[in-house]
């Protein structure tokens, strides 16, 4: 019942609070003992707790900044690139685009970073530039990210994002080429189908747009896929100026 749910929620909150207090105590011990790397890692963990479990990214930023500062001074700290990446994501979440770019640029300038982290940072950098409003720089950054990404699924995702960006730049031909590339590799890629529906709608091909949305809906065969598709549809409607219809679809999605 509700009393049990309230009790469970309180127990979970108490456990999270205790975890934060334990981390703070451990950080102080590491500081007193002069254990720089250990302190930096603990600060990173505390930042993660605030961001992911408490949904307080602004508070998390404080601890990410401390972690970056500490680990920057520890030669060869293998955790440093990952902390920069997580700090950049948190800065992005809080609208600090200049800071996010600075973190990503510092990360990408490091020597010997993990290849997987490198291409993810390149994609994140392109997205930050887009959110910042630097569309031309973002377009160039997405091209770099696509070229540097060995993972086929992630490369397709970057192409879909780049296609959406090019639609915002009114470069419909370039967007179309990227989406066709993705659908040639994976005909059932729902994100690409939704974006092609958007593009076809912009070009006045309403029948083609409806066909692509129907194909995307037919392939959304899990609750998670259907939810993602619903949010993609909301973004599509809003992007085409159909705000009332987007709100109606959002309410229907939340009621499911």
Query: How would you sum up the major sheet?
Result: none
**Number of helical segments?**
13
Structural class: mainly alpha
Estimated radius of gyration = 22 Å
Q: In whole angstroms, how far apart are the ends? A: 22 Å
Strand segment count:
0
Report the helical percentage: over 70%
Mean pLDDT figure = 89
Shape: globular
Low-pLDDT regions: none
Strand content: under 5%
Give me the strand/helix succession: HHHHHHHHHHHHH
Short description:
The chain has 256 residues and is an all-alpha fold. It contains 13 helices and no strands.
Can you give a write-up of this model?
The protein starts with a helix and ends with a helix. The chain has 256 residues and is mainly alpha-helical.
Helices and strands in order, then pairings?
Elements: H1 2-33, H2 36-53, H3 57-72, H4 80-93, H5 97-108, H6 115-132, H7 135-148, H8 152-168, H9 172-185, H10 190-202, H11 206-219, H12 223-239, H13 243-255
Helix pairs in contact: 1-2, 2-3, 3-4, 4-5, 4-6, 5-6, 6-7, 7-8, 8-9, 8-10, 9-10, 10-11, 10-12, 11-12, 12-13
Give the key terms.
83% helix, globular, mainly alpha, 256 residues
